[in-house]
Every structure is written in C-alpha cells, then in structure tokens.
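Shall we go through a protein fold together, starting from nothing but its sequence? Label the sequence line and the structure token line clearly, so we can match residues to local backbone shapes. Would you write everything just below, so we can both look at the same thing?
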Amino acid sequence: MSHTALLELAELQPAVATAIRGRFFSWPTVAIEGDAWQGWTEFGQLSSGEQNILSTGAKLIAHAEPGCLIAVDEPEVSLNTAWQQHYTDLVSRSLSEAPGSHVLIATHSPHLISSLPFGESSIVQIERNKERLKASTIDAEFEGWGSESVLYQVLDIPSASSFGFQRELASILLHIQENGADRDRLDEFLEKANRLNFEGADALAQVIASIRDYRDDLV
C-alpha cells in the first residue's frame, strides 16, 4: 500500500469512529449459531473458555502446515474440567490437514493429561536437582485414568487419600512383613510420604513413622 493511501486511511479514521458511535457503521463480528432456542451468539458474548477453544481450533486449521511444531502454554487456565478432557481431541481434529505435525503442551492439568491418546503421545517431566535440570519421558499409557492416579503416578504429586498411595502403602507394609530389605524401594516411598500433610490423620502418620524406623534399622 502506497504512502498516499495510508494517509488517506488515516484521515478517514475519525469519521469511521464517529460513524461507529452513531451506530451508522460497525466492524464485522463473528457469531456462533446455536439451536432453535438460542439463535446466534456473538463471539464476544461467549465465555473465556469457549473463546479459547474456538480460537485454538480456528488458528490451527488456518495456519498449521504438514510437519509443523505447535507450542501451547497452559491451555487449561480458562477451561472447565470437561473441556480439558476433550482438549487434545480438539487439537488432533484441527490438525487433520497437517499430517506429521507435533504439538508441545505445557500443562499442570491431570484431566488434560489423562485424555492423551494411547500410543500417540508422551509426557516429559522436568525436575530441578540443585543447579541442574533433569528430564524424563513417560509414554502416554494412562488414557481414562482418574485425576488422583495421574497426580500420584505421573506428575509425582502424592495425596494421602489417593488410591495409588494407599495401594503403594499396602505393598510396602507387605514388604516389611516379609522382612524385605529393599532400601531403594523404601526410600522412594518415604520420599513421597515426606511431601504429604498428615494433619488429622494421626494413625497414618504413625504408620509412616514406623516404616521410617524400619528403614533406619536396616544395615
């Protein structure tokens, strides 16, 4: 566009603003067709989560090319639980015309992680060990898991009430009952237990203390 044309557009800007205020003119808008009861809904009237979902799908369809890399940062921020569980399916469908593409998603959502397609995705965990970062990869083999199982067994965030923790505790107690001496196994469990809050669970706290004493007595 020439310099003269840009100047002409700049001169028209005050007139366009006045026309908009007087409702003689409006910028184009996007509307979503609902059912017979809802009619049409303008994009700006949708919730932030609905806008997020539609924007993501539209951008991927419009711009993704075969073999491209897409990076998404914490998409769960404005999404409810149901949308988090369907997010990866939305991304996959939106990339149907861009074969060979890869998607890198940074997330803390167990709901989003549990919906990752089996055999087509991986979890990369990055942990800080003093001044160094350690990365490990886990194949997505937990489609349909509950959020507590994902938190405990994938994201390594323990909860005293989780089924995964209770099952591992039972396994450790059986190991001790059989006079087991697997120090690494005991240390790994106690490391997780150290991050738990046992307030209001005195009996469980005593059990963990007994396991710790057993570990300390091992030669």
